[in-house]
Structure formats: structure tokens, C-alpha cells
UniProtKB/TrEMBL annotation:
This is 6-phospho-beta-glucosidase. It comes from the Bacteria. One of its GO terms (molecular function) is 6-phospho-beta-glucosidase activity. Keywords: Glycosidase, Hydrolase. It comes from Carnobacterium inhibens.
Length: 472
């Protein structure tokens, strides 16, 4: 038995991640229909508008639709092995419920994938990244309606057939568990959250889980070599105190997330969710083939990781607007980003180990990064750049913990930083929350040249990839 640990495997997939709606722009070009994002202006999840308004930064994004060649060249310069993006569903099926796809939309992704492959960059494609066609939200109330499974099936069958041979790695739904917290953005559910019943919400969850399993089944049939994964928002949760009631509160909170990966990996509903449904009088409608369909399990688990959270059974400790995005209980041991997301590199090692211990399935970190209000400066050589040492520190500290998890024996396929080029934020719909190695000259008032500038972190990441992580 050898005890040598090679930290990052030779074929480790280093890269970056984005989502179509957050950077492509061209929201109505070449036959594209509107998606839920096109009516979500600055301010985030809502209120939504009747039609796209000028202050919606996603309408132009960073004009990736027209500039992707220039951007991919920069990704190649950093040495990317993979690039994660999504297909905007409403480019392919503008309303979502048509039978025939929009050829111009299909052509765009053909060209995009060809451009990546030219540089040996493996595309990693999210099928649905908060991009439900708006018509499906308005007409059907999104995933609450069982018909969505059929519309999604038609869409995924179309893109699998078209891009087989070009795309090997697929993700079914971005952060599928986020539907519990952002039903419109995540699930295209038009019913206002305060009017949405638990039954309808979990019915929508069920439809997505069935659709995800169906996509996995169809994907494997059409592309035997494909690797199809689920994608969840991961967040290790710590008890505020050693009080067993707090530990139980953690268990309950974590189950709301594990539920999604459990079904994807084990192919069946876990007992604790059946209990939750029973005790809350939620009776889900199962189609006759649903149980069988759910047994089409994923090849790997992918997840986003930005922060940990803290839980307690003592409701008086909850502080609205504080702690973390889903929490409300600040962890006194952690610092926070400018947007209040508490930074916890060790939490990434914990999450990796937890998933590995639970499932023994390969893991893929497909989002991690720091959103910051970067300042463009002119360096000593007269070049415009950003001295983003804080981003380098953040990413470095997290990658060191990935290295620790690898030493622990966890199998990790790859790591794609979120927003490898500046793009529009999902939660605030602003451009000033920047994540990239590449600065884009565009601002929330709509000004800017859209020029691209390399930040200091650009050469840092290039070296990390070049040395396969030994420079960390
Ligand atoms: C995840 C989403 C991404 C992304 C990221 C950063 O939840 O999958 O789409 O944007 O978070 O969040 P934000 O853009 O709100 O800073």
C-alpha cells in the first residue's frame, strides 16, 4: 500500500463558470424569447416588471453573445481545461412550449462549443440556470405544473441530440435546492411566495427531480459517453452551541439540502422527507412512472460553495438580514464579504468530506468565488488593471482546503471559479458585484465601453493551473 498522495490529479478540470443570462446579453437577438431574468431588474429576485426595462443589466450583460471569441481566448491563455456555461432555454425554445426549436439559437451554441474545443477546453453545460422561458412562468406557473416535465424533456432531447460529440459534461438544474428560497428565479413559479402553498412548492420540487432523472436517462441513451450530474447549493451548517437541540436544528436544516442530492444519488425519497410531508399534511402527486424514473441516478455531484451557515433552536438568536444568505445567525468566528456572505474556506473541506462520506461519488466544485466592488487602476506600465489581492487570498485559501480534502481521500473531478469574467450578479442583478479574473468596463447605470482588462488574479490563476495546484 502506498501512502503517497498526489494532491491534484493529472486530469483535474480547472476552469471557470458562468451562466448564459448573466453575461450573454442579446436578450432578444436571433429569435430568443424572454426568460424570467429579462423581467428582473436591479434589486434581485423582484419585483418583476411586465416587460424588460432599461435598467435590467442582463439585457446587455457583458455582450458575451458577440464577444465570446475574445473572452474564450483569454480563458485559454489562463490554461482553462473546462468552461461551465448554460444554454439559455429561451434561445432554443423562445416560449418553451413549442415543438420545433429555433435554429439560430442552436447555431449560437454550436459555434460557442466549437470555439472552446478549438482550445481543448471541455464545455460543462448547465441545462437550466435560472432561465425558465417567461411564457412558461406566466402560462403554467413554472414547475408547479407537471407539463413542465414534457417541455423540459423536449428541450434537453433537442440539445443532447445536437451537441452530442461536443459536450460530455452536463448539469441538469443549477442549485436545484434554491427553488425553496427563490421560487420565481429558480423554478419559474409566478405565484407570489406569500401565496405559494407548501404543497405546490414541493410539487414543483418533485417535478424538477423527475425531470432531472429523465434528462439523465435520455442523456445516457443519446450519449453513452456523457457524464451527467446534479448541481446543488452546498452550505455546511454549524450548531451555534453544543446544545443537542441546536445540533438537531442543524440536522433539520441540512436535510433540506441533502434531500435533493439524496434523490439524485440514491434514486428514491429519503425517510426524513416522507416524515416531513406526513407531518405537514403535504400529499404529493406522483405520476405512475415517477418512482421508476427517479432510479436514473447521476454520475457525479456538482455544487456551488460560497459560505457556511449557523443554526440554533433558539429563535431569539435569529437576526434578520444578518449571518448568511439562508441563515440569519452570524458565526462569530468568520469574516464576511462586502455583501455579508461569511467567508469560510475550511467549510469547503467539510462539505467535500460530507458528500464523499455520504455517497462515494465523484464531486465537482462548479462555483466558488468572491464578489467584490473592484477598482480599475492604471499600473506602472500604463495598463488598466485591478489589484485584487483579496480575491487571490479567497481563492487560494479555498483551494488549499480542496487540497486537504484530496489528501483525505475525497474524489474531486474539477474546480470552476464562479464568474471567471465579470458578469451580472444573480442575487442583486448588479454588475458592481464582480467575481472575474477579467474586468469588464460596464456599470450599473448602463455606461462603459465593455472593454476587457486582466486583473492581478488572472496571472495568479494561470500559474495555479500551469503548476496543477502546486503553486498554492
Ligand atoms: C449562485 C448562482 C450563480 C451566481 C452565484 C453568485 O447562487 O448559481 O448564478 O450568480 O451564486 O451569486 P451572486 O451573483 O448573487 O453574487
Amino acid at each position: 500500500m502506498t501512502l503517497t498522495v498526489e494532491q491534484f490529479p493529472k486530469d483535474f478540470l480547472w476552469g471557470g463558470a458562468v451562466a448564459a443570462n448573466q453575461l450573454e446579453g442579446a436578450y432578444n437577438a436571433d429569435g430568443k424569447g424572454w426568460s424570467v431574468q429579462d423581467v428582473t431588474p436591479q434589486g434581485g429576485f423582484g419585483p418583476i416588471t411586465d416587460e424588460p426595462t432599461e435598467d435590467n443589466m442582463k439585457l446587455v450583460g457583458i455582450d458575451f453573445y458577440n464577444r465570446y471569441k475574445e473572452d474564450i481566448k483569454l480563458f485559454a491563455e489562463m490554461g482553462f481545461k473546462t468552461f461551465r456555461t448554460s444554454i439559455a432555454w429561451s434561445r432554443i425554445f423562445p416560449n418553451g412550449d413549442e415543438v420545433e426549436p429555433n435554429e439560430a439559437g442552436l447555431k449560437f451554441y454550436d459555434d460557442l462549443f466549437d470555439e472552446l474545443l478549438k482550445y481543448n477546453i471541455e464545455p460543462l453545460v448547465t441545462l437550466s440556470h435560472y432561465e425558465t422561458p417567461l411564457h412558461l412562468a406566466k402560462e403554467y406557473d413554472g414547475w408547479v405544473n407537471r407539463k413542465m416535465i414534457g417541455f423540459y424533456e423536449n428541450y434537453v432531447r433537442t440539445v443532447f441530440t445536437r451537441y452530442k460529440g461536443k459536450v460530455k459534461y452536463w448539469l441538469t438544474f443549477n442549485e436545484i435546492n434554491s427553488i425553496l428560497h427563490a421560487p420565481f428565479m429558480s423554478g419559474g413559479i409566478a405565484t407570489a411566495p406569500e401565496k405559494l402553498t407548501q404543497k405546490d412548492l414541493y410539487q414543483a420540487v418533485h417535478h424538477e427531480l423527475v425531470a432531472s432523472a429523465l434528462a439523465t436517462k435520455i442523456g445516457h441513451e443519446i450519449m453513452p459517453e456523457a457524464q451527467i450530474g446534479c448541481m446543488v447549493l452546498a452550505m455546511p451548517t454549524y450548531p451555534l452551541t453544543p446544545n443537542p437541540d441546536d445540533v438537531i436544528a442543524v440536522m433539520e436544516a441540512e436535510r433540506k439540502n441533502y434531500f435533493f442530492s439524496d434523490v439524485h444519488v440514491r434514486g428514491t425519497y429519503p425517510g426524513y422527507m416522507k416524515r416531513f410531508f406526513r407531518e405537514n399534511a403535504i400529499e404529493l402527486d406522483f405520476g405512475p412512472e415517477d418512482e421508476e424514473l427517479l432510479t436514473n441516478t447521476v454520475d457525479f455531484i456538482s455544487f456551488s460553495y460560497y459560505m457556511s451557515s449557523t443554526e440554533t433552536a433558539d429563535e431569539s438568536k435569529r437576526e434578520a438580514g444578518k449571518g448568511n444568505i439562508l441563515g440569519g445567525i452570524p458565526n462569530p468566528y468568520l469574516e464576511a464579504s462586502e455583501w455579508g456572505w461569511q467567508i469560510d474556506p475550511k467549510g469547503l473541506r467539510i462539505v467535500l468530506n460530507d458528500f464523499w462520506d455520504r455517497y462515494q461519488k465523484p464531486l465537482f466544485i462548479v462555483e466558488n468565488g468572491l464578489g467584490a466592488n473592484d477598482e480599475l487602476i492604471i499600473d506602472e506600465n500604463g495598463n488598466k488593471t485591478v489589484n485584487d489581492d483579496y480575491r487571490i487570498d479567497y481563492l487560494n485559501d479555498h483551494l488549499v482546503q480542496v487540497g486537504e480534502a484530496l489528501k483525505d481521500g475525497v474524489e474531486v473531478m474539477g474546480y470552476t471559479t464562479w464568474g471567471c469574467i465579470d458578469l451580472v450578479s444573480a442575487s442583486t442583478a448588479e454588475l458592481k458585484k464582480r467575481y472575474g479574473f477579467i474586468y469588464v468596463d460596464r456599470h450599473d447605470d448602463g455606461t462603459g465601453t465593455l472593454e476587457r482588462y486582466k486583473k492581478k488574479s488572472f496571472s495568479w490563476y494561470k500559474e495555479v493551473i500551469e503548476t496543477n495546484g502546486t503553486s498554492l
